[in-house]
TrEMBL record:
The chain crosses the membrane at residues 123-141. Keywords: Membrane, Transmembrane, Transmembrane helix. Pfam families: HTH_25. It comes from the Bacteria. Residues 1-12 have a biased composition (Polar residues). Residues 1-24, 98-119 are annotated as: Disordered. PANTHER family: CYTOSKELETON PROTEIN RODZ, PTHR34475. This is Helix-turn-helix domain-containing protein. The keyword Transmembrane helix applies. It comes from Mesopusillimonas faecipullorum. The keyword Transmembrane applies.
Amino acid sequence: MKQDDTLASSSAPAAPQGLGPTLRSLRESKSLSVAAVSARLKFSPRQIEALEAENWQALPKGLPLRGLVKNYARLLETDAEALAVLLDASTQQGHLSHQTLASSPAARSMGSMEKPRSSRGSWGWMFIVLVLVLVVLFYALDRGWLPESWLVSQWFNDVSQP
Protein backbone atom coordinates (compact mmCIF):
# COMPACT_ATOMS: atom_id res chain seq x y z
CA MET A 1 0.00 0.00 0.00
CA LYS A 2 2.88 2.34 0.70
CA GLN A 3 4.24 1.60 -2.75
CA ASP A 4 0.90 2.63 -4.29
CA ASP A 5 0.92 5.91 -2.34
CA THR A 6 4.45 6.66 -3.48
CA LEU A 7 3.59 5.76 -7.06
CA ALA A 8 0.45 7.90 -7.03
CA SER A 9 2.23 10.92 -5.60
CA SER A 10 5.09 10.68 -8.11
CA SER A 11 2.78 10.31 -11.13
CA ALA A 12 0.53 13.26 -10.17
CA PRO A 13 1.55 16.50 -11.84
CA ALA A 14 3.35 18.75 -9.42
CA ALA A 15 1.97 22.20 -8.75
CA PRO A 16 4.15 24.93 -10.22
CA GLN A 17 6.62 26.47 -7.82
CA GLY A 18 7.06 30.24 -7.84
CA LEU A 19 5.42 33.08 -9.68
CA GLY A 20 6.79 32.46 -13.17
CA PRO A 21 5.79 28.81 -13.50
CA THR A 22 2.39 29.60 -11.98
CA LEU A 23 1.77 32.32 -14.56
CA ARG A 24 2.95 30.06 -17.37
CA SER A 25 0.67 27.19 -16.34
CA LEU A 26 -2.31 29.54 -15.95
CA ARG A 27 -1.62 31.09 -19.37
CA GLU A 28 -1.30 27.68 -21.00
CA SER A 29 -4.51 26.48 -19.33
CA LYS A 30 -6.31 29.43 -20.99
CA SER A 31 -4.65 28.54 -24.33
CA LEU A 32 -3.07 31.99 -24.60
CA SER A 33 0.20 32.55 -26.39
CA VAL A 34 2.95 34.85 -25.14
CA ALA A 35 2.23 37.15 -28.09
CA ALA A 36 -1.47 37.37 -27.18
CA VAL A 37 -0.66 38.19 -23.56
CA SER A 38 1.92 40.72 -24.69
CA ALA A 39 -0.57 42.46 -26.97
CA ARG A 40 -3.20 42.71 -24.24
CA LEU A 41 -0.88 43.83 -21.44
CA LYS A 42 1.19 46.21 -23.62
CA PHE A 43 4.45 44.65 -22.46
CA SER A 44 6.94 43.12 -24.85
CA PRO A 45 7.00 39.34 -25.37
CA ARG A 46 10.54 39.34 -23.94
CA GLN A 47 9.22 40.82 -20.70
CA ILE A 48 6.41 38.26 -20.49
CA GLU A 49 8.91 35.45 -21.08
CA ALA A 50 11.30 36.98 -18.52
CA LEU A 51 8.49 37.12 -15.97
CA GLU A 52 7.57 33.48 -16.58
CA ALA A 53 11.26 32.52 -16.35
CA GLU A 54 11.67 34.71 -13.25
CA ASN A 55 14.51 36.61 -14.89
CA TRP A 56 14.21 39.65 -12.61
CA GLN A 57 17.13 41.53 -14.21
CA ALA A 58 15.21 41.82 -17.50
CA LEU A 59 12.13 43.28 -15.82
CA PRO A 60 11.30 46.69 -14.40
CA LYS A 61 11.64 47.10 -10.65
CA GLY A 62 9.14 48.13 -7.97
CA LEU A 63 5.67 49.35 -8.83
CA PRO A 64 5.82 48.72 -12.61
CA LEU A 65 6.65 45.05 -11.98
CA ARG A 66 3.87 44.80 -9.41
CA GLY A 67 1.45 46.38 -11.89
CA LEU A 68 2.50 43.94 -14.61
CA VAL A 69 1.83 40.98 -12.31
CA LYS A 70 -1.56 42.32 -11.20
CA ASN A 71 -2.65 43.06 -14.78
CA TYR A 72 -1.46 39.61 -15.86
CA ALA A 73 -3.53 38.09 -13.02
CA ARG A 74 -6.65 39.99 -14.15
CA LEU A 75 -6.09 38.80 -17.71
CA LEU A 76 -5.82 35.22 -16.49
CA GLU A 77 -8.87 35.75 -14.24
CA THR A 78 -7.05 34.72 -11.09
CA ASP A 79 -6.38 36.27 -7.67
CA ALA A 80 -4.09 39.27 -8.19
CA GLU A 81 -3.25 39.57 -4.49
CA ALA A 82 -2.14 35.94 -4.28
CA LEU A 83 0.17 36.49 -7.23
CA ALA A 84 1.49 39.69 -5.65
CA VAL A 85 2.38 37.62 -2.57
CA LEU A 86 4.16 35.14 -4.85
CA LEU A 87 5.99 38.06 -6.47
CA ASP A 88 7.12 39.28 -3.07
CA ALA A 89 8.32 35.80 -2.15
CA SER A 90 10.06 35.33 -5.49
CA THR A 91 11.87 38.64 -5.47
CA GLN A 92 12.34 38.63 -1.69
CA GLN A 93 11.37 42.29 -1.59
CA GLY A 94 8.38 41.96 0.70
CA HIS A 95 5.99 44.85 0.78
CA LEU A 96 7.39 48.04 -0.70
CA SER A 97 8.77 50.14 2.08
CA HIS A 98 8.02 53.82 2.49
CA GLN A 99 11.64 54.59 1.69
CA THR A 100 11.45 52.67 -1.60
CA LEU A 101 8.23 54.42 -2.55
CA ALA A 102 9.58 57.83 -1.59
CA SER A 103 12.66 57.36 -3.75
CA SER A 104 10.75 56.28 -6.86
CA PRO A 105 10.32 58.86 -9.65
CA ALA A 106 6.54 58.41 -9.60
CA ALA A 107 6.37 59.20 -5.89
CA ARG A 108 8.60 62.25 -6.30
CA SER A 109 6.37 63.61 -9.04
CA MET A 110 3.27 62.93 -6.91
CA GLY A 111 4.93 64.69 -3.99
CA SER A 112 5.59 67.71 -6.14
CA MET A 113 1.90 67.82 -7.07
CA GLU A 114 1.00 68.35 -3.42
CA LYS A 115 3.10 71.50 -3.18
CA PRO A 116 1.90 74.83 -4.56
CA ARG A 117 3.00 75.40 -8.13
CA SER A 118 4.88 78.53 -7.23
CA SER A 119 5.07 81.05 -4.44
CA ARG A 120 3.71 83.68 -6.85
CA GLY A 121 0.41 81.80 -7.06
CA SER A 122 -0.13 81.86 -3.28
CA TRP A 123 0.80 85.56 -3.11
CA GLY A 124 -1.70 86.23 -5.87
CA TRP A 125 -4.54 84.77 -3.81
CA MET A 126 -3.48 86.75 -0.76
CA PHE A 127 -3.45 89.95 -2.84
CA ILE A 128 -6.98 89.25 -4.12
CA VAL A 129 -8.25 88.67 -0.57
CA LEU A 130 -6.60 91.90 0.62
CA VAL A 131 -8.19 93.89 -2.21
CA LEU A 132 -11.61 92.41 -1.40
CA VAL A 133 -11.23 93.32 2.30
CA LEU A 134 -10.27 96.88 1.36
CA VAL A 135 -13.23 97.21 -1.02
CA VAL A 136 -15.64 96.00 1.69
CA LEU A 137 -14.01 98.37 4.23
CA PHE A 138 -14.36 101.42 1.96
CA TYR A 139 -17.96 100.45 1.11
CA ALA A 140 -18.79 100.18 4.82
CA LEU A 141 -17.08 103.53 5.43
CA ASP A 142 -19.07 105.18 2.63
CA ARG A 143 -22.36 103.83 3.99
CA GLY A 144 -21.56 104.99 7.50
CA TRP A 145 -21.57 101.49 8.92
CA LEU A 146 -18.29 101.97 10.82
CA PRO A 147 -18.23 103.72 14.21
CA GLU A 148 -16.39 107.06 14.40
CA SER A 149 -13.84 105.57 16.79
CA TRP A 150 -12.61 103.20 14.06
CA LEU A 151 -11.68 105.99 11.67
CA VAL A 152 -7.98 106.80 11.34
CA SER A 153 -8.63 110.54 11.24
CA GLN A 154 -10.22 110.28 14.68
CA TRP A 155 -7.06 108.62 16.06
CA PHE A 156 -4.89 111.54 14.94
CA ASN A 157 -7.26 114.03 16.56
CA ASP A 158 -7.14 112.10 19.85
CA VAL A 159 -3.33 111.99 19.83
CA SER A 160 -2.86 115.70 18.94
CA GLN A 161 -5.19 116.97 21.70
CA PRO A 162 -3.62 116.95 25.14
